[in-house]
Amino acid sequence: MSEMTKIVKTTANILFPFTMIFGLYVIAHGHLTPGGGFQGGAIVVSGCALLLVAYGSSWVFDRIKDKRLAAFESLGAIGFITIAFLGLMFSAVFFGNFLAGSGSLFGTTPATGSTLADFNTGGVLPLMNFAVGVKVIAGLFVIVLVMAYASSTKEWG
Amino acid sequence: MIEYIPYIGVVAMILIGLYPILFRRNLIKIVIGISIIESGVNLFLIILGYRDGGVAPIFTSLPPGTTYPEEMVLPVPQALTLTSIVIGVAVLALMLSLVMHIYRKYGTLDVQKIRRLKE
Amino acid sequence: MTFLETLLAHSPALVIATPLLSAFLVPLVGRISPRIRDIFALVMLGVTGCFIGLLASDVLSHGSRVYVFGAKNLSVPLVRILFEVDSMGMFMAIITVMLAGIAVIYSWSFLQKQDGLDKYYTLLLLVTTSALGMELTGDIFNFFVFLEISCIASCALIAFWVEEGEALEAAFKYIVVSSIGALFVLFAIGLLYAQYNALNIATLAHLLQFSFLDKIILVLLLVSLGMKAGLAPMHMWIPDSYGRTPPSIVLLIMSATLASFYGILRVIFTMYGNVLTTPLRFSLPAHLIIGWILIALAIVSILIGVIMALIQTDLLRLIAYAAVAEIGYMFLAIGTSIAALGTTYATVALQGGVLHILNDAIDIGLLFLVAGAIYFVAKKRSLDDISGLARNMKYTTVFFIIGLLAVAGMPPLNGFTSKFLIYESVYQVNPILSIIALLGSILLLAVFIKVFYAAFLGPELPELKDVKEAPRSMLLAMGFLAALAVCIGLFPNIFLDALVKPAATALLDHAQYINMVVGGL
Q1: Is B58 close to A140, i.e. CB distance below 8 A?
Q2: Is the pLDDT of residue A151 over 70?
Q3: pLDDT, tens digit, for every residue of A86-96?
Q4: Residue A63 domain-assigned?
Q5: Whole domain around residue B110: which residue ranges?
Q6: Do the chains contact at A114 and B82, CB–CB below 8 Å?
Q7: A117 CB near a chain B CB, below 8 Å?
Q8: Most buried one in A60, B99, C242, C453, CB count within 10 A?
Q9: Residues of chain A that touch chain C, judged by Cβ-Cβ distance less than 8 Å
Q10: Nearest CA to CA, how far is A15 from chain C (Å)?
């Protein structure tokens, strides 16, 4: 994909931070609202795809290393499984929610019924959402990036 | 009668999706067909969990006066659909990248012209 | 609780988690050194194998166990994902991890000079994880998720030789077939959930009524899993994808295929176990109809497999058609066992079928590895271009002879044991079937004798004058499979008593499988 006009670039510049914030919000509130790591990650990547459209794939490709994205993808997956293993270690159950109700990080027990959402709840669920979010952002972005770059150049391997 | 319309939609989407897979020669159209089948199956799962006038299955934001869980829509089919969507994205990305490689190799997307593996 | 008991209690989860974790660690380890990465993959598979061994010894001596994810015990309502481990699942898990380990050892030399090996090992471990997951899970939706993981990862592996157009074509064919199959599995799961409000296999089996929808579900599941297992009318992806990938990858796709076959066994014997004797049209019981349909398709598979193998010139593709025939034998065995449900020879047929899963993995795997070794040294695929290899490749020749005799069901090798059990029981149902099955084996022998003459004997070709023996790690991988083939052939009773009979019993005893979960609530 080649670069587009100034109008598109300016619009992308304005929209990009909002998309990022919204995507990160969806990831962070995964345990409270419909949404979570995958959905938020997809939103973040749609913001990145906006950049890709506006500035052209080679511009983005020069600034972001796809190897590093792949490493982040692995880290996200490792983080997810590590949390599952931590559950095995601290609560003797694989995928056990050892933080729920502990009073520490994300450890408050929410009241049932119509209450205001308390962010500090959910135990390991927010952490898992973060891990999935990292994985999805890196994974989807690398797919979009490589596909856009590959279809824009004649020679690629 | 009106409550059957979504189910008819599901069957229609699956059949529409099967048509290009069986009768079309363009690889991209085959990929589109698979995507349509997937949407049909996802729609089916979503209808299963639908409850007339139900609210979103979130305990802490129940509207006052509702009794749970009878007035919530079923969360399990939604979780299933979400998983299926995630998988669908991966399959779609893989298929499209294969199509890109095939196009680079053969310069065409016509199944008949590509076929080397016969017998 | 001692450390070992804790480990045992959590081993169903660890069996899945270890290869999954190492799949994502592999690219990071690969940044340190490729050599360490290669060994790391094998070591992690070894650790997985240890967990499987621990679990298997316990399951075989103390009966099956249920593992609940995220909670300590079963509780009502049953919303958690369960793993239900019985002897059949363990039998399949042993085969899967064995094939993966051999694939890793073989690919040390075979894929030495290729790039993208970080991703290769990641995908290899993911296919292993997904096959193990399919074999251990007690939740039908979880089964679907693992099925899809295996589709995606195997498809990416089939396209490993991405420079070759044929590999891409095979991969595209595979992903189309398997993703449609998986979507129909998902549709069937949706129908099951709509009727019974459950996703747990044991609970579903307990509630199943064999209504009209249940018949549709059975057909959907059988067709889509049969497609992935390579049953006759839907076998066309097997020769393409088996014939166009490195042999180490074939072993992995084979483990995914066998896991789909296991899925069919689980669906018929466990999920529909309670209702198999329900009378249908013309007061014929359901198991008779299902059994005879499977037998008919199996016969078609055997015939297509051997006849197409006869006319092939590409060595890898030829073996792939032989693999189709072997899948036909497995379906023939379980078809017989279902059709004759309740009789003694139904049990014999099932034992033959279950043992044949292992034998198919060993024999076809060995032949593919030998063909891969030939391709590695001679860089030729077609049988017309290779000749007189026996002079320079002594060990490979011996391994090929063992493989060809085993696949044709000759005593004293492993193929004989399982095929004999199959002939014996099929004869009780209908003698003509056993004649066709025997004829298939004889034709397979003829096919491979032809290959042996063409490739190993005959005049030495000038351009193949200085071929060397295959590298050591490839010989090790082939030698392991060949030794296993001889061992099972010489001492079939040890394997039958220790692994196969408990597995067949576990399949037939669906009431116990159901009771493990439903009774515990």
Answers
A1: no
A2: yes
A3: 888 888 788 88
A4: yes
A5: 2-55+66-114
A6: no
A7: yes
A8: C242
A9: 70-71, 74, 77-78, 81-82, 84-85, 87-88, 92-97
A10: 34
